[in-house]
Design goal:
118 residues, alpha+beta, four-stranded antiparallel beta sheet, 33% helix, globular
Length: 118
């Protein structure tokens, strides 16, 4: 009976180790140079809300922040946006800061830079 418990414990431990190692690989593609760039982070903003200037940006773990100017001339306004990668990690989606700006929802770096500004 004792041997069976030991074997069961080892099987559970091995499954946990394999699951933890697999989880790390899902966030790497979005952080490539082409995905974490002013151009790709500005892509969701079209029409009247077009980004005209990027002051700062950063990406981590499928999340990003963007400090930018939208519009031009008298209509220009500075904004801070938080973005999340789509499920296949190929493009960015603007998310509501009211909904996601809570501790632990996103990487701390993105939380600090994206949630405490205008």
């Amino acid at each position: 009976m004792k041997v069976l418990r030991i074997i069961s414990s080892l099987v559970v431990l091995a499954a946990l180790v394999l699951a933890a190692n697999g989880a790390r690989e899902t966030t790497t593609p979005i952080e490539s140079a082409s995905m974490c760039s002013p151009r790709s982070l500005s892509a969701p903003f079209t029409g009247a809300e077009r980004v005209t200037e990027v002051a700062s940006y950063g990406c981590e773990g499928g999340w990003a922040y963007l400090w930018a100017t939208i519009g031009s001339g008298a209509d220009a306004v500075g904004v801070t946006e938080v973005l999340r990668a789509n499920e296949s990690m190929t493009y960015w989606i603007v998310v509501s800061r009211l909904k996601v700006c809570k501790p632990g929802v996103m990487p701390n770096y993105i939380y600090r830079q994206g949630c405490f500004s205008n």
